[in-house]
Amino acid sequence: MARRQLLLTLVLAASLLGCALCQTASEEVEVEGVVTDTPPREQRQNAEKFEFQAEVSRLMDILINSLYSNKDIFLRELISNAADALDKLRFLSLSDRSLLGEGEQAKLEVKISLDSDKKVLKIRDRGIGMTKQELVSNLGTIAKSGTSAFLESMQKGGDINLIGQFGVGFYSVFLVADYVEVITKNNDDKQYIWESDAGGNFAISEDPNGEQLGRGTQINIHLKEETQEYAEEAKLKELVTRYSEFIDFPIYLYVSKEVEVDAPEEEADEAAADEDVSDAEDVTDEEEEEEGDEEEGKEASKVKETLWDWELLNDAKPIWLRSPSDVSEEEYSKFYHAISK
């Protein structure tokens, strides 16, 4: 009788453990080094509203309504912008090492992660970041010479793929997004959130969650219904690898991997408990001893577990950091075509 009660207790414990594991699996994965919890829009009561400069609005309209099939370019432009921000900080730190900070903050890198449930792609760099005034001027209100030049090019049938050459590559994000947040922290200012749904205006607010970034910029890209292919890990890995080939800063993608691990003792006992509970009263002391000997010889049960970690996608050195004799003709050709786009 005592054995039966013990087995029933084990079954109940295993059931409760299973529920706990399911609950944990459904929770959002916390991503180290990335802001995962941005305040809801309605909580940003201190947001200042701005109108996009007229030519920027025209540019946005073209991108939002574009039938251009190669929307992949948005990732190329955002990775390029992140590398530029890192370059600026690296240059300034040559004369003032303190600008880099300490520990993790001093690492000049780009991290890309994905919230598959919410269809939000996040690109975070540890570059120079932007002040509030730079957000206002760089992302909307100040006309850039490149904006007019790009619009003129498009009117003449130009290729949207060349958007980066006109200095307005950031806006290519609206090829795939219906809402964008830019969270940024410059050493000389507080942390701010720029946001827009490309409706002709944008808003900037001080981040009520404080300065989680430390320094740098994170872009949260809320994907359109028709562009959710970019919420697939395999697609991202292929694109990031392609567009980071000539970037001399490490670029990481947050990926999941399934591994086999030893099952927890309670979980391993669950199957045996289910089998034994029906005839537990009929088990003799002698049979119990035999079962004990059998258990000692069994291998530990295995279960699959999902682990998350950062995977480096551009571990090859850029060709300008390698000996000319180690660079093939094909690599020279690929580099030429990449920088001449």
List the helices and strands and how they pair.
Elements: H1 2-26, E1 48-51, H2 54-64, H3 73-93, E2 110-115, E3 120-125, H4 132-141, H5 145-155, E4 177-185, E5 191-196, E6 201-206, E7 216-223, H6 233-243, E8 251-262, H7 265-276, H8 285-297, E9 302-312, H9 329-339
Parallel strand pairs: 2-8
Antiparallel strand pairs: 1-6, 2-3, 3-7, 4-5, 4-7, 5-6, 8-9
Helix pairs in contact: 1-7, 2-5
* Total beta strand runs: 9
Percent of residues in β-strands: 15-25%
Quaternary assembly: single chain
- Major β-sheet, in short? 9 strands, mixed
Mean pLDDT: 79
Distance between the termini: 79 Å
CATH homology superfamily name of the domain at 41-244: Histidine kinase-like ATPase, C-terminal domain
CATH fold annotation of the domain at 41-244: Heat Shock Protein 90
Structural class category: alpha+beta
Which consecutive residue ranges, at least 5 long each, have pLDDT under 50?
10-28
Secondary structure: helix percent: 25-40%
Question: What sequence of helices (H) and strands (E) makes up the elements?
Answer: HEHHEEHHEEEEHEHHEH
Q: How do the strands line up in the largest sheet?
A: 1-6-5-4-7-3-2-8-9
Quick structural gist:
The chain is an alpha+beta fold and 341 residues long.
Describe the overall structure.
InterPro entries: HATPase_C_sf (IPR036890), HATPase_dom (IPR003594), Heat_shock_protein_90_CS (IPR019805), Hsp90_fam (IPR001404), Hsp90_N (IPR020575). GO terms for molecular function: ATP binding; ATP hydrolysis activity; ATP-dependent protein folding chaperone; unfolded protein binding. This is Histidine kinase/HSP90-like ATPase domain-containing protein. Keywords: ATP-binding, Chaperone, Nucleotide-binding, Signal. Belongs to the heat shock protein 90 family. The protein has 341 residues and is of the alpha+beta class. It has a domain at 41-244: Heat Shock Protein 90. The protein contains nine helices and nine strands. It has helices at 2-26, 54-64, 73-93, 132-141, 145-155, 233-243, 265-276, 285-297, 329-339, and strands at residues 48-51, 110-115, 120-125, 177-185, 191-196, 201-206, 216-223, 251-262, 302-312. It has a nine-stranded mixed beta sheet. A hairpin with a 4-residue loop joins strand 5 (191-196) and strand 6 (201-206). Helix 1 (2-26) packs across helix 7 and helix 2 (54-64) packs across helix 5. The protein is globular, with a radius of gyration of 27 Å. It starts with a helix and ends with a helix. 24% of the residues are buried. The model is unreliable at 10-28 (pLDDT under 50).
